[in-house]
Design goal:
By secondary structure, the protein is an alpha+beta fold. 36% of the residues lie in helices and 21% in strands. The structure holds zinc ion (ZN).
Length: 103
């Protein structure tokens, strides 16, 4: 039996490579809205972040989403995303197997 390849993506804040299910996707939709995409299936340019508010804060500080999404992201949008991020964090953590989380 061959092990299945796990697609890896890079967190735009801390640059760690992780499996897609370990990351939260932020998407820039075709009408230029920037939102969190928990399904990972929304159309648009995506950027990935670890499912941790600390990584979101790092991305906000370094403007990592501006670069990853190739469009300026305003402070208001970062603030809104941060609130959304905190709101989805618990759901996100509950959704994945905590046993393989070493932290
Ligand atoms: Zn990260």
């Amino acid at each position: 039996m061959r092990p299945r390849k796990i697609p890896l993506r890079k967190c735009v804040a801390c640059q760690q490579m992780l499996a897609k299910k370990e990351l939260i996707r932020v998407v820039r939709t075709p009408d230029e809205a920037v939102l969190i995409d928990l399904t990972g299936k929304k159309a648009g340019r995506g950027a990935y972040l670890c499912g941790k508010v600390s990584c979101f804060k790092l991305a906000k500080k370094s403007k990592a989403l501006d670069r990853a999404l190739k469009q300026p992201v305003s402070t208001e949008i970062y603030d809104q995303l941060e609130q959304d991020f905190i709101a989805v964090e618990d759901e996100f953590i509950a959704a994945k197997d905590r046993a393989d989380d070493d932290e």
